[in-house]
Design a protein that fits this description.
heterodimer; A: alpha+beta; 6-stranded mixed β-sheet; about 40% helix; about 20% strand; B: alpha+beta; 5-stranded mixed β-sheet; 15 helices; globular
């Protein structure tokens, strides 16, 4: 068979929709919820422990305490000291990470399937019986201080930290997760132990298991590891609702002398995760900066050659996460790039999206769905995120129809709120000597900000 | 020595070759209705010449800008609208391009790949070259120049590889050489390297072999085979004496990179090198982590890795000092630990842990059909690098065959000899924190013992 016309775009075949792996939920004797996804052919097992709270329960002077506590969870647990625990994890081919975000602690581990039982035991020890040894605390604190020091010379980190602080002000979502030299300076081990006790309890905890073991195989092992756990409390209250608000339309400039690129962030507070308009926001974001062919990337990278890449994102936090457009541009192009970003906001706000562009964005979101849940880690992170955000586990089964139903009017409606340029802040980390003058020519107040 | 219960890995595939020499590999996996299409061209930065460094990677960018039957912009628009994601990468040995799409879009993906393999130059022009040149220059700024420690690797390559060695320059190239690239260079490069004879196409996912065969023949069959690519001269690489350099950078923490010449991919010692990297600084139980981070509290972190290459590899130990710790101290302690490992060897437990991590790494990469290091990428990797697409099982067996003595022996022969190069990256004004060369050896060694 010969090809008659190579210019013809081949047709799309029949798209097969897949049911995402279904999850079963059950409870351990002490109240810990378990979400289990059985994947009989899986070569890996993935386990996550989610403990609600995280850095959003901290006072400003405690910045860094949640992530430091998380770092210490796997420095010795149960009968195993720090080195022994590391050896036990590595010996079964496992990887484990212990983190805190703004809304919760995450203990995540994966290993080849045959190590399922041992992995559950190790994760249970790390969750319920971390040792918090003094020597480990001192060392981790000193390493953390060094990292914060190092991060202060990375223009991308400078921009990120400044952006969150500008957008959220005094709210815990605006405080750096890693802490600062000041807040870390006088931290004591007792603060870590108190924070642990004030968070880690069965009623704030959900376990996630994804793997080839059936429920009847893992349930007794989970009971053995977690079932006796009570937690000590008293628990810190979880923070209350955050009302979405805009930002003052200023340019905040953090000096990074000699920088060959400026790191730019443009944005504001975003939407709540259960907002019924989330599918429309996903489409809006895809159009603006959520794909390679997005408005921002096409303009700043492909057309103007200012950058290696530009994108935008609505981050999902439990209360209201941030919305930001981000890029790093060649220093001399800084002011023009900011103008271009704000122009793209305006265009989406005032001009209806052409039909083919809208269709492409919707199909990108809808047809890409099966590939997003291919690996153990992808499935684990998806069910953990849904749970943290209090969304139903079958949330994705309606996603395709919701996205395909989004109209240009819906996109316009969302753009009027979130892309209102009088309500977004601009943050720039770059070489002040070169860019300050050009920034002051833009139609915004310029504020200098210490790093 | 093989343990009877050791895991095995395997990727089932069909292989055939078109008349024009295009190698085709097909792996069926119907876990999800998706398919990965992956093309490797056997050209990388090693095929460049001084004065035109960075060209292979710049050329990779141009492959996305349209071809005779695919107007500029359609490549990404069509893939995204079909629910696909795509990317590519260039290293010193090869350039790869991949897309992961719903199975329904397989024909489209093949059409796109075939058109740019056979008909790229027809629509190539100065504007496209200039635009992508800007993008790549920004990539160089973002990933290297404006990033802490970003210029270390380039400095190391110049120090280790002699003039005329094809690994001497970084894949990103220099700004000066990028400026020099012309349209004639683009045409020559395409004709020399981008043809079926120098390419391999791997397809993995929910596909029928017969349908794939028919489409591949239809879309790729008409592309002329092309000529064998020119061979390259590879001068021998030998670090004659311990060398040290100091680089000042916008960093807060000093970092030492120690580099040894190591085996080529799959050559003798390659498996030992990988496992030695795990034992020395793979995870928290590793020798150097325990010694430098935990016990001595001199380092913020330490890592070791084996940088692979078809023409030869590099073994790297990277240690970041806590503030105020001189890198010479760390340099000395690392060499002491290497000497211990070289004389007494690792323990059986250390080898077991390193192997467990390696085996788990194989299992992790087999979870995905697409993307970097997914199954389609792996098939192409083994085809080019080992001469056998089905090599994965034997690849793992090579690691499983490493024992205490073979690892000790490799460390003794390679790392314990005074043939390392060390680069210190220090904060500006702190050159005294850098590590200097140890005492020179006895006079008869001065010329490095070659010939």
């Amino acid at each position: 068979m010969r090809l008659s016309d190579r210019r013809q775009i081949p047709p799309l075949g029949t798209v097969r929709n897949v049911a995402l792996p279904s999850a079963e939920t059950f409870c351990l004797g002490n109240g810990v919820d378990v979400v289990h996804v059985h994947r009989p052919d899986s070569g890996l097992v993935g386990i996550e422990v989610l403990v609600r709270g995280g850095a959003s329960t901290l006072e400003a002077h405690e910045a860094g305490l949640a992530t430091l506590t998380a770092d210490l969870l796997d420095e010795g647990a149960g009968v195993l000291e720090s080195l022994e625990l590391a050896q036990a994890i590595e010996a079964i081919g496992a990887r484990m990470s212990t983190n805190s975000g703004y809304d919760g602690f995450h203990i995540r581990a994966t290993a080849p399937s045959r190590a399922t039982e041992r992995l559950i035991e190790l994760v249970a020890d790390v969750t319920t019986r971390p040792r918090f040894a003094q020597a480990d605390f001192e060392r981790e604190l000193s390493v953390r201080k060094a990292r914060v020091l190092q991060s202060s010379s990375d223009p991308s980190n400078l921009a990120d930290d400044a952006f969150l602080s500008v957008v959220y002000g005094e709210d815990p979502y605006g405080v750096p997760l890693m802490g600062t030299a000041t807040t870390l300076g006088t931290l004591k081990r007792e603060a870590v132990m108190r924070l642990y006790a004030s968070h880690f309890a069965p009623q704030r905890t959900t376990l996630f298991v994804v793997g080839n073991a059936a429920r009847q195989e893992i349930e007794p092992v989970l009971e053995k590891g977690f079932g006796d756990w009570k937690g000590s409390g008293p628990l810190r209250p979880l923070p209350g609702a955050l009302t979405p608000f805009g930002s003052a339309p200023r340019i905040h400039l953090v000096d990074k002398p000699g920088a060959s690129q400026s790191e730019i962030r443009v944005g504001r507070v975003g939407a709540a995760p259960d907002d019924p308009d989330v599918p429309s926001l996903d489409v809006l974001n895809t159009l603006l900066g959520g794909s390679f062919t997005s408005r921002l990337n096409s303009k700043l990278r492909e057309e103007k050659g200012f950058t290696y890449g530009a994108f935008s994102v609505f981050t999902d936090n439990v209360r209201v996460g941030p919305f930001s457009a981000e890029t790093a541009v060649h220093t001399p192009a800084t002011a023009e790039a900011i103008t271009d970003i704000l122009n793209e906001f305006e265009r989406l706000r005032t001009e209806p999206v052409p039909g083919d562009e809208l269709q492409r964005a919707k199909q990108y979101l809808a047809l890409r769905l099966p590939a997003r849940f291919e690996t153990t880690s992808q499935v684990l992170e998806a069910i953990s995120e849904l749970t943290l955000l209090s969304l139903p586990l079958d949330w994705y089964s309606h996603y395709v129809e919701r996205v395909m139903a989004v109209t240009a009017a819906d996109v316009g409606r969302m753009a009027k709120i979130y892309l209102d340029t009088s309500q977004v802040a601009v943050v720039v980390a770059g070489d002040r000597a070169t860019i300050e003058a050009q920034l002051r020519e833009l139609d915004r107040e310029v504020v200098l900000r210490a790093p | 020595m093989k343990h009877p219960a050791q895991p095995r890995v395997h990727i089932e595939y069909t292989q055939f070759k078109l008349e024009n020499g295009l190698n085709v590999l097909v792996h069926a996996d119907d876990s999800l209705p998706i398919v990965a299409v992956n093309v490797w061209y056997h050209v990388g930065s090693k095929n460049e010449r001084p004065g035109r460094t960075g060209f292979a990677h710049l050329f990779e960018h141009l492959m996305f800008e349209g071809s005779e039957n695919v107007p500029e912009g359609l490549f990404d628009e069509l893939l995204e609208g079909s629910g696909g994601i795509n990317n590519g990468s260039t290293d010193s040995d090869r350039t790869n391009y991949w897309e992961t799409v719903p199975t329904a879009a397989l024909e489209r993906a093949l059409w796109l790949e075939a058109d740019r393999m056979g008909w790229l130059l027809q629509t190539m022009d100065q504007e496209k070259l200039d635009a992508q040149r800007s993008v790549v220059m920004n990539e160089r700024r973002e990933s290297y120049e404006n990033r802490p420690y970003g210029m270390a690797w380039e400095t190391i390559l110049k120090a280790v590889y002699p003039e005329g060695h094809p690994y001497r320059w970084p894949t990103i190239g220099s700004m000066e050489d990028l400026e020099r690239a012309t349209l004639d260079d683009v045409r020559d490069f395409f004709r020399t390297f981008y043809h079926p004879r120098n390419a391999s196409l791997a397809i993995a996912g929910a596909v029928s072999i017969d349908r794939v065969r028919a489409w591949v023949e239809l879309y790729f069959g008409d592309i002329p085979a092309g000529a064998p690519i020119p061979s390259i001269d590879v001068p021998p690489v030998h670090i004659a004496l311990e060398g040290r350099e100091i680089l000042e950078d916008d960093v807060e923490l000093a970092r030492l990179e120690l580099v040894w010449v190591a085996p080529a991919s799959f050559a003798d010692g390659d498996a030992e090198a990988s496992l030695a990297a795990e034992v020395l600084a793979g995870g928290k139980s590793s020798r150097l982590y325990q010694q430098l981070v935990v016990e001595a509290e001199l380092a913020e972190d330490v890592d070791a890795f084996f940088e692979e290459g078809e023409l030869g590899g590099l073994f790297v130990i990277e240690v970041t000092a806590l503030p105020g710790v001189p890198l010479s101290t760390l340099d000395h302690l690392i060499h002491e630990e290497i000497a211990r490992l070289a004389s007494s060897g690792p323990t059986a437990d250390e080898v077991q842990r390193a192997l467990a991590q390696t085996e788990a790494g194989f299992v992790r990469s087999l979870e995905r059909v697409g993307g970097f290091d997914g199954k389609a990428d792996r098939l192409n990797y083994y085809h080019f690098t080992a001469g056998d697409a089905g090599f994965i099982g034997r690849d793992l067996e090579r690691y499983q065959a490493v024992d205490v003595e073979s690892l000790r022996c490799w460390v003794d022969l390679t790392l314990a000899e005074p043939h390392a190069f060390g680069l210190s990256v220090v904060p500006r004004g702190k050159t005294e924190w850098g590590a200097n060369a140890p005492e020179p050896p006895a006079p008869f060694d001065v010329n490095g013992g070659e010939g």
